[in-house]
Amino acid sequence: MKKVFAVLVTGLFFFTPLIVQAADDIGPLPALSEKDAPNPKQVEMGKRLFFDRRLSGDAGVSCADCHNPKEGFTTRKPLSDAYPGSKHWRNAPTLLNITYKKGGFGWDGRLMDLDDMLRDMITDSMNMNMDMQIMQERMKQDPVYVQHGKDAYGDKNMGTSQKGEVTHYVVRNALIQFLKTLTPKSPFDKGNLSAKAKEGMELFKGKAGCIQCHSGTYFSDGKPHNTGVPENPEVFKDPMRHFTYTAYMMFMGVDNRMNWRRDIGYYTISKDRNDIGKFITPTLRELKHTAPYMHNGTLATLDDVIEFYNMGGGKDRPGFKDASVKPLGLTAGEKEALKEFLLSLSGDPVMIEAPKIDMDYKPIPDWKTAKN
To answer: Does residue 21 carry a pLDDT above 50?
Structure first.
């Protein structure tokens, strides 16, 4: 029986489940096509929005608060923060290279593309708790965004009803353009691997079996797997996290939600008990900068993750854990080689300084008399 090394690293309305099959082999990230390349003016607008707390309901949290550029566009906390007054029960995934992700957004895979993800993150009560209509009206009162809209979305751009108007669609699109720039090049992408890393790559493809789940240029098959990741008890010990978890389960129509004492993962979407404890395979890229690991941050280091899978993963009820997850039998030297290869998938940190955002701006001159 084949072995699986499924590293779950660095968490989202009802949608029909759609799981994307990635390519079988691994490879460097391709360059974005001319059509898909980010627009510099839209990137500039998106960068400011990424750091702007006014995208949240009470202007208390920005995208960057949970996806910190100084922490690999994630957080060093095992479990993420959330909208003020609540706490999250999952680890915030990194946004690095997310433009290459194809379907299965979120640990339970319920969102299908970046636009869906951003809409959900902005409007969901546990994340940013913002009404899209209110958000766009806020942005329209900031002269900086008004000018951004004219510069980046005016003329023949985007088919908006009023060219250059700062709509919620424009806000999400600008954020997507900014995310397209978060694509660092790793030693693996540059073909710059040490002899030990090359040995580790062979283990990755062979004895360790990592490639069975972590395939393609994004190093993810986009599918849900249960590898026996231990629960993070703080989800159920902390009343605020447990409340947020329970509210989400109620929203998603999960049965018996008050009695669960585990993160049920993909079962939230499929309602198939065989999917309890399954989580979407994340990317392995940039894992040097994105510890702690797993959907709940329970493994602190990459060494912990490698040993976890070398021992055959964790435990779960019969029939829940993937039967193919078995002890790997890696020697100390093989584990070091595998680790060196995995680290070669990380480039230099992407450091982006937060733009200055004046929260005390004066409204546009004629806003009080503007027609609806």
So the answer is: no
Q: Which residue has the higher pLDDT, 160 or 165?
A: 165
CATH number at residue 215: 1.10.760.10
- Dihedral (CA of 318, 321, 322, 324) sign: negative
Please tell me the pTM assigned to this model: 0.88
Cα distances from 262 to residues 218, 243, 254, 276, 300, in angstroms, run 28, 13, 13, 9, 20
**Would 299 be classed as within a structural domain?**
yes
Q: CA dist 9 to 146, 242, 289, Å? A: 38, 22, 11
Are residues 212 and 335 located together in one domain of the fold?
yes
Contact of 247 with 241, CB cutoff 8 Å: no
Rounded Cα gap, residues 102 and 120, in angstroms = 17
Residues 214 and 151 in one domain: no
Q: Are 275 and 266 in contact (CB under 8 A)?
A: yes
Q: Which domain holds residue 99?
A: 40-183
pLDDT at position 158 is 57
Residue 11 within any structural domain of the chain:
no
Phi, psi (rounded to 5 degrees) for 87: -135, 150
